[in-house]
Amino acid sequence: MTAIPTSRMLRPQLPTTQPELTLFFLAPSLQHARTAPRRSPIARFSTSPALWKRDNNKNRGLSVLRHTGLRPRQTLSVKSEKNFKLPKPVVVEQVIQGDENHGLWGFFPDDRRLLMTPSEESRHGKPWTAVDLEQDMERMGHGPDYLHSLWWTCVKERNRLATEKLERERRHAGYGDHENEKRDEAVQGTMKAILEVVEKMESEPATSEEQYLDQYAPYSDIPESEEPQLIEAPEERKMDQAYEGREDKQEGSRQDKELPEPTFFNATDNPPTLEEKLKQKADKILWNK
Q1: Per-residue model confidence as pLDDT tens for the chain (289 residues)
Q2: Residue 252 domain flag
Q3: 205 located within any domain
Q4: Which of 40, 105, 157, 233 is buried most deeply by CB count within 10 Å?
Q5: Radius of gyration of the chain from its Cα atoms, rounded to whole angstroms
Q6: Which structural domain, as residue segments, surrounds residue 141?
Q7: Which family is this sequence assigned to (predicted)?
Q8: For residue 128, how many other CB atoms are within 10 A of its CB?
Q9: What is the model's pTM?
């Protein structure tokens, strides 16, 4: 006969359960089954992806970034021939050294920087005027070559200022535009003064000719009787005389053939007669012969 549990005796209204009807020697195992945690059900299939077959890609695993290189016995589609050679890559660490005295360095500042600070950009004087240039040329004894070199110095400066302006726009610097414009205006004022001086020099050719004669003609003050004479060789003198005689003969033959007197056919007061027309035509025919 089975024992009645105390819970049943204290609570007779509870319904009977299955463990109460079991044998007493199975009670410990049933108690263990009650207290044991419940486990999640185990799936009868695998959720891992299936193994795919090879895609027959011979270049699988080759990486340009990882420098894995070619497989053994792998050849390139482009082969080196006699007339075609594969280009060699340039070494990244190689430093290209240019000409230190290249002419294009003249379009950059002396320290060869691309941009100047606003304080350095504003360090310039007033533009040259025409009077300043004339006084400087007179004091230093310069000529038109001085104006030419000064003109190209201004051209280089304007080129440098334009390059700085584009570089500031590219970098979105936000500074230096005002100083750049002021310096450019000063350079343009100097170039206008150079053009004014050149126009003034061209309008006075006599003065320039006198300066040239004073500078390059040391015998200009010597009278004609005392000037050194050029003595010609006898052979050159004979050739000159023969050439002069030939010219005299040609002038004489031209004077012998005189053109007929011109007559005005369209004049209404004196229209030519038929005899005059025939005579004029005959004279033209003879002259052409």
Answers
A1: 556 666 555 555 555 555 445 555 555 555 555 555 555 555 566 677 667 676 777 777 777 677 666 767 777 666 666 677 777 877 777 777 888 888 888 888 888 888 899 999 999 989 999 999 999 998 888 888 999 999 999 999 999 999 999 999 999 988 899 999 999 999 999 999 999 999 988 887 655 556 656 665 555 555 555 545 555 556 666 666 666 766 666 665 555 555 555 554 444 556 777 778 777 777 776 665 5
A2: no
A3: yes
A4: 157
A5: 57
A6: 107-216
A7: Belongs to the universal ribosomal protein uL29 family.
A8: 20
A9: 0.41
